[in-house]
């Protein structure tokens, strides 16, 4: 009886004892490798955020585009009636198409334009368009060729000069407004610079560049005045 009880207690103790299980060698190596990789990553330096800078050449390029457009449009205003395109680009009220779609326009001499209408049915339409354009032209049909119109270019009147001056002044206003818009955009970029000294220098440089182009625009105005 005692022997049976001893065997029973012995078996019970064996079943309760925890048997340690060792991890396979490959698994232990893999875990160590992962741990080393994590440690390595923690030591890597975080990438530096690039500091904002000012590309003043880009600013000059934007201003130059505005000035080129300013000069080109002033040239068109200055030429006024002394330009074949002034007639060729007139829009026919009935169709909204330019006169160049209905006729060939060329300059015979410094004071004369010749307009050759393609279709005889469009002669009256072209004549009325040119006569009512406000350019002061009075097209006259050639006796031997009714489809050919002659336009004598009259000297500019005081009224015409005043209208030209208004157009030129308005053009300068538009150009300066465009330059101010560019300046405002670049001043926002300046405020993102790293230090107060850089911001101060940036504001000075941007303002100086805009001022140069604004003065150039004013010089173009003086050349274009009638």
UniProtKB/TrEMBL annotation:
Recorded GO MF terms: ribosomal large subunit binding
Location of the Ribosome recycling factor domain: 72-220
Keywords for the protein's UniProt record, in alphabetical order: Protein biosynthesis
Family matches, as SUPFAM superfamilies: Ribosome recycling factor, RRF
Family: Belongs to the RRF family.
Record-given protein name: Ribosome recycling factor domain-containing protein
GO cellular component terms listed in the entry, alphabetical order: mitochondrion
Swiss-Prot/TrEMBL GO biological process terms: translation
Function: Necessary for protein synthesis in mitochondria. Functions as a ribosome recycling factor in mitochondria.
Classification of source organism: Eukaryota, Fungi, Dikarya, Ascomycota, Taphrinomycotina
Organism per entry: Protomyces lactucae-debilis
């Amino acid at each position: 009886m005692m022997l049976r009880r001893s065997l029973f207690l012995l078996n019970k103790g064996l079943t309760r004892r925890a048997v340690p299980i060792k991890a396979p060698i490959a698994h232990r190596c893999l875990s160590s490798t992962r741990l080393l990789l994590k440690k390595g990553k923690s030591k890597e330096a975080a990438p530096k955020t690039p500091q904002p800078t000012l590309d003043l050449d880009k600013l000059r390029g934007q201003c130059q585009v505005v000035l080129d457009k300013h000069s080109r449009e002033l040239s068109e205003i200055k030429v006024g009636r002394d330009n074949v395109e002034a007639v060729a680009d007139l829009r026919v009220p009935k169709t909204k198409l330019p006169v160049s779609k209905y006729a060939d326009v060329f300059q015979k001499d410094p004071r004369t334009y010749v307009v050759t209408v393609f279709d005889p049915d469009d002669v009256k339409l072209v004549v009325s368009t040119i006569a009512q354009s406000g350019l002061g032209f009075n097209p006259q049909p050639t006796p031997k060729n009714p489809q050919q119109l002659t336009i004598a270019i009259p000297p500019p009147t005081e009224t015409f000069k005043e209208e030209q001056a208004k157009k030129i002044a308005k053009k300068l206003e538009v150009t300066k407004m465009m330059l101010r818009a560019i300046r405002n955009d670049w001043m926002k970029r300046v405020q993102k610079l790293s230090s107060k000294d850089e911001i101060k220098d940036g504001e000075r440089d941007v303002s100086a560049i805009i001022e140069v182009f604004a003065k150039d625009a004013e010089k173009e105005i003086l050349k274009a005045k009638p």
